[in-house]
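Ticket #4471: complex job returned nothing on first submit. Input attached below:
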Amino acid sequence: MADPALCAAVVKANGYGLGAVPVARALAAGGCRMFFVATLDEGIGLRQAIGEGSEIAVLNGPFARTAAEFLAHGLIPVLNHPGQIEEWTGQGTGHPAILHVDTGMARLGLTAREFAALIDNPPPPIPWRAVISHLACADDPGHPLNESQRARFTAAAARLPGIAASLSASSGIFLGPAYRFDLVRAGAALYGVNPVPGRPNPLRQIVRLTAKILQIREIDSGESVGYGAAHVMAGPGLVATVAVGYADGWLRSLSRRGCGYVGGVRVPLLGRVSMDLATFDVSAVDPAQARPGATVELLGPHYGVDDAAADAGTIGYEILTALGARHHRVYHEPATTNPPE
Amino acid sequence: MADPALCAAVVKANGYGLGAVPVARALAAGGCRMFFVATLDEGIGLRQAIGEGSEIAVLNGPFARTAAEFLAHGLIPVLNHPGQIEEWTGQGTGHPAILHVDTGMARLGLTAREFAALIDNPPPPIPWRAVISHLACADDPGHPLNESQRARFTAAAARLPGIAASLSASSGIFLGPAYRFDLVRAGAALYGVNPVPGRPNPLRQIVRLTAKILQIREIDSGESVGYGAAHVMAGPGLVATVAVGYADGWLRSLSRRGCGYVGGVRVPLLGRVSMDLATFDVSAVDPAQARPGATVELLGPHYGVDDAAADAGTIGYEILTALGARHHRVYHEPATTNPPE
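Support reply: We reran it on our side without changes. The output follows.
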């Protein structure tokens, strides 16, 4: 989709919760040569893990007195405001950086006034690796801010001829060729999150999350389950208590709304998600499959990252970044990314 | 509050997000000799960190073929169902374990029928370290399930004379002496979460969370801020972009509702929380204090764990367990637990 723009990989937030190091190594093996992280710490960790062969850009840029660390680890800072430009040029000239101009997100990046001042009175020369901006409403193709940000960015990039221009992250790529410029910064789309909410996901689901059943319990009609006695059984049934909870990032806002799958059968989440446990109604499942030690599929082909997000009242990005440290992360070669049920 | 019951410390979920190892070491130095974790992995990690001097109990108990690992690491399993009892006695007799009887939570623990069968036909002798149960509605003192669980537990414990009985976790301790039995299992209360929701918190706030301001931006009236152009400024103002986001556990459900404090002044969260960033209205703050590199207090004396939970539509427990790996955790000696502003 990005072609002919260069596609950089965003692996901040520990590779969207999936493990920045194995994700970046797999992408590097696939030809990716440019990575974006959010913080200096993330940049240092990634540099140590993947060696010198790739560019690593740090979106938050330097705080005061940290520019030397960027240089020591071969990191490219994104410079978001005049103070960061000053911090960077204080390290001498000739060190590449990325310039961030704001075009309507109002979060990070030079304001129009600051950008005009930079063009009129350039700082000591910085070899700009790229000029970037960020869309506020890329997941809403009809939003008028998209076109106005694109126009502002086109005008800004024209003031820096010969510098690679980059406006779009995952959803922006899908707004069409006019949004792709020279470089795109794919994050969520790499991990299968739907970049076009409300329309069918053009990407494959790549994350599968399972948890083990600890106990199966026969519940009588009228008995309550879990904290606050929040769920009362309408009839007798079988309840599976599963070793996953909100401390694992199985968000508490999924309570009463989420679900899992056992042997391809939907099992509704019952009551409230606990810190380390959740309960599912497995009455409809073959008892040979719903037994202690068996697994419940929490994310996968039947119930994807965006499905869980909808039930939790959030976005797929948060479902991924919330995935906790107690999950064992197992990486499959591409041919087995979606293991059979 | 627990006196004369023994008080065990619950340090599962990485010590409720705060760091199980330093938390357990501090509690051990203060005299705590019994710890509860949720999983075998957590038990192994804690044993390696704190040595042999304390008991470590594992709430989830063994899965098939993991009992030997409990023995190897000196862990006491909580046995929640007949299959786990069988797994444990398969390792031979004489190994201590904790028996969990369900009294109305319907999540883990022997059912009344299973418990009666155990008493009538005892398995090979297990030196029971304790018999425990768990309250479903302890945070709601008026809920009738509390008294019925207490009565059922009293009756069950009477069938195991001489064995330490434990019903209450943090909120249960505050239901009164009748709920304390021989052993209590304090978790959230150790970390300052209010154990009596709706009433003043009798505990001190012990967690302070700060994040750094990356950029200060002058916003004109009518300009939008952040994703989805979700916040539109009613008048001109100053917005601080801060290096904290939902990937740090600053839950996305805080969007438009949360706040921070700068120099003791409340700064409302504006628009949506991003993955790595959040924006705050700092128009009311002395500009000398609202500058890049300065800190915003996100949890602390002004805005505690329970305040953030209320704004996020969750409970303080999740605010703590969500705290992400990018935060630098700094531990203070008791005298400086609440550093002055």
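The two ends of chain A are 30 Å apart (CA to CA). Closing as resolved unless it happens again.
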